[in-house]
Amino acid sequence: MKPAAVDYVRADSVAEVTAILAECGDDARVLAGGQSLMPMLNMRLAAPRVLVDISRVAELARIRSGVADHASDGGRAAASGAVAVGAAVTQARLEARPTLAREVPMVALALPYIGHFQTRNRGTIGGSIAHADPSAELPLVLAALGGEVALRSQRGTRRVAARSFFAGMLTTDCRPDELVEEVLFPLAGEGARYGFREVALRHGDFALAAVAATVTRDAIRIAVGGVADRPQVETWPRLAGSALDDALDALARRLDARDDAHASASYRRHLVRTLGRSLVEELA
Amino acid sequence: MRRYSRGEQHRVEVVLDGRSREGRCESRMLLSDFLRHVLGATGVHVGCEHGVCGACTVIVDGVAQRSCLALAVAADGRDVRTVHGLARDDVLSDLQQAFRRHHALQCGFCTPGILMSATDFLARNPAPTEQAVREMLSGHLCRCTGYTGIVAAILDVAALRRERGGTQAA
């Protein structure tokens, strides 16, 4: 349970990070808070040649509000601008932001579910997005809100919508020479209501199923994590009663739930139906 | 930019429990191993080595974190506090005394990590609910106590500190 030999580089600027990534590509891994990558190094599930530590890069430690976004995702609630969270910002720091519940209520609701007090102190927003664990809360929230990821390399900067960014289990659209520079959460829309709920074996464990929902005057946008290989998002009209039950049942069946050591596929489908139902009713 | 090449010994300096300390290690060495084996801080216990059990929790630059999920070279220049620094002049801290009063430990393996988490937690949450304390403790595994005594000790010390703070203010 010790990492393999590795070259460790502590970067002071984004330019240094992208230079190393351009040079080393797949042989390099970006290390931010280390709460996902360090366990993988300890268990030798990952053994990169170079680790690039970005945790002391001041440019990446910023949280900016009101950043213009591309509104590229037509299905989401109307929003003007986003909160852009730099790659070195810890989950604990975002959680402590006094204006967070007003700016992006769903993020404020989901943060306490992420790992534990001790891991949120070091774990970063960008790291969770880049790691793309199918059970993780932040990728689910980013997909549910129709957010974006800003990727930076020596070739330039590009923004990718969450629905294209998450490509599968632990797999994203981030190329080997790119750094997840910022994560953009769209600001809360006028009159939209946001909710988040999950079931895990113990508090802080990975979700067996998690549901995030946005309810507006004429639409329900629902996102499910922990079941498929990446967050799944659907937009419905304001369904209620048995029509809502039918839609949730159809969604649960489309997710290709699998049996594993923690829960059966049928239990996960059950969670999607019951969590979805209670969440939508709460927000209606 | 600073590069620490593999296979070489690198100097790492930390302020450990208020004293400047330095040691040499490879770039791949975990902070937990550096604290224990290089600096001799064996009160840092190592359980699972993948961030689940919480036994190795220390306070780095003011926040509680897993020392098994950090590299020693990444901690260069940081302030590190461990269980060794809690007692002053051989007098246990108020938190340690509360643990003793409430039988909040048995074998003691998980205790140093829990003490460090609780130290950071109480500094940020002076009046926590029982639920909040239990959520904080979800980051630690204790197989002896069933947690009841630990929760009681943390709530007790929070109340005592508020009382004392109130007395001082009056």
Quick tags:
heterodimer, A: 284 residues, alpha+beta, Uridine Diphospho-n-acetylenolpyruvylglucosamine Reductase, domain 2, Uridine Diphospho-n-acetylenolpyruvylglucosamine Reductase, domain 3, Enolase-like, domain 1, 5-stranded antiparallel β-sheet, 4-stranded antiparallel β-sheet, 11 helices, B: 170 residues, Ubiquitin-like (UB roll), DNA polymerase, domain 1, 2 domains, 5-stranded mixed β-sheet, 35% helix, elongated
**Mean pLDDT level of chain A:** 94
Assembly context of the chains = heterodimer
Helix content of chain B: 25-40%
CATH class of the largest domain in chain B: Mainly Alpha
Question: What share of the residues of chain B does DSSP label as strand, in percent?
Answer: 15-25%
Task: Walk across the major sheet of chain B and give the strand order.
Answer: 3-2-6-4-5
Kindly estimate the percentage of residues of chain A that lie in beta strands according to DSSP.
Answer: 25-35%
Largest sheet of chain A: 5 strands, antiparallel
Strand elements of chain A, count: 14
The main β sheet of chain B shows up as: 5 strands, mixed
Low-confidence stretches of chain A: 74-79
SSE run of chain B: EEEHEEEHHHH
**Integer tally of domains of chain B:** 2
For the residues shown, what is the average pLDDT of chain B? Answer: 96
Q: What would you report as the Rg of chain A, rounded to the nearest angstrom?
A: 19 Å
SS summary, helix count of chain B: 5
Largest interface: A-B, 36 and 37 residues
